Amino acid sequence: MKTTKACGSLLAGCLLVLALARVNAAENWVAYSASPTGSKVKIDGTSTLHAWTMESQLVSGKMEFEPGFKLDPSLKPGKVNARAQISMPVRQFKSTKDAMDQVMQQAMKEPQFPKIEYRLTELVLKEAPKMPEGPYPFDSKGELVIAGVTNKIAMPITLLRVSPTRVKVSGSTDLKMTDYGVTPPAPKLALGALKTGDDIKITFDWVANQRADAAKAP
Amino acid sequence: MKKNDGHQDLNRREFLSGSSLSTLMMLMGGVAIQAQDKPKEEETGATNYQTTGAPVKCGLIGCGAWGREIIKTLAVLPNAPVVAVCDTFAIGRDRAQKSAPNAAAHEDYRKVLDDKEVQAVIVATPSHLHREMVVAALQAGKHVYCEAPLAANHEDARAIAQAVQSAIKVHFQAGLQMRSDPQYLFRLQFIRSGALGKTVKARAQWQKKQSWRTYSAKEMNWRLQRATSPGLIGEIGVHQVDAAIAYINALPVAVTGFGGILRWTDDGRDVPDTVQSVLEFPGGVRLSYEATLASSFDADYEIYYGTDSTIMIRDNKAWMFKEVDAPLLGWEVYAQKDSFYKETGIALILDATKSTKAAAATGPDAAYMESPLRHALAAFVANCNSHAAAVNDFSDNFDISDTAALKEYLDTSINKVKTPHAGLREGYQATVAALKANEAILKGQKIVLQKEWFDLA
After folding, report:
1. Which domains, ranges and CATH numbers included, belong to chain A?
2. Residue A186 has pLDDT above 90, yes or no
3. Is 90 exceeded by the pLDDT of residue A18?
4. Which of B25, B53, B396 sits opposite A49 (nearest CB)?
5. Which chain B residues touch A51 with a CB distance below 8 Å?
6. What is the value of ipTM here, to two decimals?
7. Do B139 and B420 form a contact (C-beta atoms < 8 A)?
8. Which of A91, B51, B100, B273 could disulfide-link B293, Cβ–Cβ 3.0 to 4.6 Å?
9. Which residues in chain B are contacts of A44 at CB distance < 8 A?
10. How far apart are CA B241 and CA B429, in angstroms?
11. Using the beta-carbon criterion (under 8 Å), do A87 and B47 form an inter-chain contact?
């Protein structure tokens, strides 16, 4: 019984030490939060009439890197422990035409799923940048949630050190609306001549500022 | 232009004009258009979409003749319920309420502003009362549609401009309704594309045989006294001055004016009933403006003269009169034409073919059934919605107390893509130009307009 108790105490002690170590490590994660200005996400699409574009500049979220991470030439190619959660309100995507925006919002089931979300799960630096501030070329993997449907996506992205405490993450990816359960809008017209194409391209610049406080435990 | 048979003779212009939605989709991209065969509905997967935004609950402050026109127009919009009306004059208030029977009626505008249900107010009171009401409404967090002119004097206009610039969480729109009219936007694009050749001069007039007097109470006749009235060019001409600023694409640099009381000499007014003014624009282009309450001849119109063609706008319709040596544009060969004495005017009409079809069934004015005011108020409601959504979404994601960031976000995003309307800049600059022209008329002298008078900051 004594042995069991002693083992229990030892185990509890070890767990406590591990937990503390983990907290310490987590506190040292390098955290960035979205800047309220400077970001841009563009959706380019096609239709039977012409190409179309919608754009939003409201992109929130955070990105965190492993302790000691620095976006400078000391960063070696290979995997970087990082995580990110990015969020965009659907209704802030604007085409310059209110009626078109309303159509898109309905196609994307905006009332039910008001946000497009992205979660980064893997980040690999492909090669050293040509300039110390970047852009640093990465391969990324993550999950994209549109209209309530989650899909895994992989895309090349770049990180640029805009200032010692500010980064810009840029990239683009091709998607199909139907992969996310979105029926390409085909508004009824007098001549019935417009149908949007399934293929869209998302291009983004996400600007974030380094947070003074450390990130919380993952 | 009646079609001679049932054959679908689809040409490019007709295709473009076939639907406002197709046009807007087209405008989004700007890629070359080509006509398509009409697909069957089942092939397109065509779906119905609701393109009307959420309702914006409105309060009307000022139930005079124009205020009542506004409330009648709001009543036909699908998403602009009027929940409050306000006027110190009971007859006007009661008449307005007929168009919105469920609206609360108030004598004091502050009651409208205190009403949490009211999201937006339309200020259609006498111009000299705008300042107090607009500033208070903005401070109360209401979206504001302020009738033109924004104010009856420059100081009030500047105070309104400052209040609007501070109230970044709400949408502000000036009542220069033409700025929202698709016909105006079409003409603007046409003129800016150089269709006039070199613009050399402009002329505008507004003429009616009427006293401008209403009821007997003095405060109801604020237009007749200089202390409260911006005069004919300030009250009426502001719309035509605004159009000239837009079409000539410049602000006036000087104004000259003359005026007198020539018809209504015996009712105690001191505001001229007949005025003439010349507004000088950069490059020697001048707008000659005339207005009178003594003659109704030729009513109101605007004419822009260029070396290649002249464009006449009246009753929100427009015609182009080409010089014989002007380059051939192509489309004018097929366009609708109207005769004016010895001249032939080529009609400039957005959605011309559609309007021709409609005209066959409903008469020559079918294309103009939706008034500029309706377009302006519909734009106001759409813009209130998009502005409020942008502010709410910013608030949900970032620190809303970071006013500089919020302003930058709004200025670089939503404020750039609102439904066409007259914003503060357009409203303020037209107001300043018209007020200075009125001042020149009263003084009978030339006023050189300082550039900084038009600056918002």
Report:
1. 30-216 (2.40.128.110)
2. no
3. no
4. B25
5. 29, 31
6. 0.84
7. no
8. B273
9. none
10. 10
11. no
